[in-house]
Design brief:
The protein has 238 residues and is an alpha/beta fold. The protein has helices spanning 41-44, 75-91, 107-118, 134-144, 146-152, 190-199, 217-220, 222-236; strands at residues 4-9, 15-21, 29-34, 56-61, 100-105, 125-128, 177-182, 204-209. The chain is built from eight helices and eight strands; from the N terminus they run βββαβαβαβααβαβαα.
């Protein structure tokens, strides 16, 4: 794949690293990919690597503290990093700044919801396997693991209340929102997808993949999932 290794800075001066993949002509627009928690772009870019062949530019980047990006991970810092990535794309002279969409997965879906709520320049968002609330996703994992529940039951009570996606998702409308989630997701409770959908404004879509685990839809059900995601992206732009 053709790609460009890029660096850009956040408003608080942290240097971030990413890979920009140019779309094959005719280019439809640009996708800002926001990856999940574990790993960095060396593994996560594969979730969006099929999009350039379909005519979409793609930026995959690492949040602060991930991969080759500088800094230390914080929740507020990760949100600031998403803003910086969008700013970088809008400043590129070879891109149309009015044709940028978001595609967030897991943690990236949560970050993307906040970004889309705060930045109307993002013309639409697809969130795959996103959680709705930081305390609730932590509590859900504690309940599923008896040992963790015994030693870490107190952790959620000391977590920040900032940037919970459920508090932001209603502000994305009237831009389109697609919420994707596997019914057998072992990392994020599928019920969280339904609560995000209920809190969102129109236009919105909820797409539950029967039997799919975390990230499973675009790989296990690629022949169905990829065309539908492309259709959603096309619907977001005139």
């Amino acid at each position: 794949m053709a790609y460009e290794s890029v660096h850009f800075h956040t408003h608080d001066g942290v240097q971030l690293h990413g890979w920009f993949f140019p779309g094959q002509p005719p280019v439809r627009g640009t996708i800002l990919h926001l990856h999940g928690n574990a790993g960095n772009i060396t593994g996560h870019f594969e979730h969006a690597a099929w999009l350039p062949a379909k005519g979409w530019n793609v930026l995959c980047f690492d949040y602060r503290g991930y991969g080759q990006s500088a800094g230390t991970v914080t929740r507020a810092g990760t949100i600031a990093d998403a803003h910086a990535a969008l700013d970088y794309l809008r400043a590129r002279p070879d891109l149309d700044p009015e044709r940028i969409l978001g595609f967030g997965q897991s943690l990236g879906g949560a970050v993307g919801i906040v970004l889309a709520a705060e930045r109307p320049e993002l013309r639409g968002l697809a969130a795959d396997g996103a959680f709705e609330h930081y305390r609730r996703i932590t509590s859900w994992h504690l309940r599923r693991n008896p040992l963790l529940r015994i030693v870490g039951w107190w952790v959620p009570y000391f977590m920040s209340k900032d940037y919970n996606p459920i508090d932001y998702v209603g502000r994305i409308a009237p831009r389109p929102l697609l919420i994707m989630h596997g019914t057998e997701d072992s990392i994020v409770d599928p019920a969280m997808a339904r609560r995000l959908y209920e809190a969102a404004g129109e236009p919105k879509q909820l797409w539950m993949f029967d039997g799919a685990d975390h990230y499973g839809a675009l790989h296990e059900l690629a022949e169905t999932a990829r065309p539908r995601l492309l259709e959603f992206f096309s619907q977001c732009l005139p």
